[in-house]
Amino acid sequence: MKKIAVFTSGGDAPGMNACIRAAVRGAIYHGLEVYGIRRGYNGMIAGDIFEMGSKSVSNIVQRGGTILKSARSKDFMTPEGRKKAYENLMAHGIEGLVAIGGNGTFTGAEVFYNEYQIPTVGCPGTIDNDLYGTDYTIGFDTAVNTSLEAIDKIRDTADSHDRVFFIEVMGRDSGYIAIQSGIGGGAEIVMVPETHTPLKKVVSTLKEGWNRQKSSSIIVVAEGDEEGHATQIAEKIKEQLGDKLDIRVSTLGHVQRGGSPTAYDRILASRMGLAAVEGLINGQKNVMAGIVNNDLIYTPFIDTIKKQKPIHDDLLRMVHILSI
Ligand code: F6P
């Protein structure tokens, strides 16, 4: 393998730049030519492909976002889009890909390989931490710390006004950000898509706290919880509790996706970026580089896409015990 390309795709995540840097410098170190593709699969289709040198990734290890930009490509889901992407890669002589992204990115890479046999090694880049085959994904630690900082601030005002706050964090299908920031932020309840928290349980927990003179409460809700978004849940709870409690809602949103990556994310991303390049050199294809128990492993895309990474029961149990 002489020429490879790197791209970022799907929702951006802090640490993606550190991963790009590791892939580019790792490739150059091993004597490969390395190209960048802008805007993920959309750039592959548009031919937005350029050669990257060691200096092109200077001064980015600490930056949030992605210098290669990102997109969720609809065109790559079509055979015509993938054909165009293949032709553009061939025009540059690219023989292997490093894909930094999540589930959608790896699904695209798997389909692409089946049609055109271009090997791809993935790096798990998503704040959601919802990928099987790695303990943590790039950006998750930073997102949790960002949420936690916000929860701490909300706690100050919640306490001053004796209020209940429903705080919504990101996680369409996954409650990892919610559970970790909830435990770290001392939440009374954490609502996640992985388990059902009935509204009557929320009501009874709030009532119990109120009876014990608890003056304020924090409930962290993952955006994908089956009871709905935080605003909807708060409305339903208000209907049941009337004026007894003063309830407010705060949705943290995309603030969780930005910012300078934590040390943990930079190191994780650097390890994975290098592992992806070395994997390609050693003949790996259609696998994601991940870290499990601090060991580097490669997991087939098909498993990272299909298999679930459940939240540890201990964490869910802990929220309840520690909020009494
Ligand atoms: O996948 C990461 C994520 O931040 C999810 O938590 C969230 O549901 C989604 O992306 C939001 O995507 P977009 O920025 O495209 O609205």
In the CATH hierarchy, the third-tier topology of the largest domain is known as: Rossmann fold
CATH class of the largest domain reads Alpha Beta
Overall radius of gyration = 22 Å
Please state the structural category: alpha/beta
Cross-sheet strand order for the largest sheet: 3-2-1-4-5-10-11
The average pLDDT value, as a whole number, equals: 96
Percent range for β-strand residues: 15-25%
In helices, the fraction of residues equals 40-55%
Number of helices: 11
Shape: elongated
Under the CATH scheme, which architecture of the largest domain would be assigned? 3-Layer(aba) Sandwich
Please characterize this protein's 3D structure.
With 324 residues, the protein is of the alpha/beta class. The chain folds into 2 domains: 3-139 and 261-306, Rossmann fold (3-Layer(aba) Sandwich), CATH 3.40.50; 141-257, Phosphofructokinase domain (Rossmann fold, 3-Layer(aba) Sandwich), CATH 3.40.50. The chain has 11 helices and 11 strands. It has helices at residues 16-29, 40-46, 79-91, 103-116, 140-161, 176-184, 199-211, 230-241, 263-281, 301-306, 313-322; strands at residues 3-8, 33-37, 49-51, 96-101, 120-124, 163-169, 189-191, 217-222, 246-251, 287-292, 295-300. The strands form 2 sheets. It has a 7-stranded mixed beta sheet with strand order 3-2-1-4-5-10-11, with helices on both faces. Strands 7-8-6-9 form a 4-stranded parallel beta sheet, sandwiched between helices. Strand 7, helix 7 and strand 8 form a beta-alpha-beta unit. Helix 1 packs parallel to helix 9, helix 2 (40-46) packs across helix 3 and helix 6 packs parallel to helix 11 (313-322). The protein is elongated, with a radius of gyration of 22 Å. The mean pLDDT is 96. The structure holds 6-O-phosphono-beta-D-fructofuranose (F6P). 6-O-phosphono-beta-D-fructofuranose (F6P) is lined by residues 11, 102, 126-128, 170-172, 223, 257.
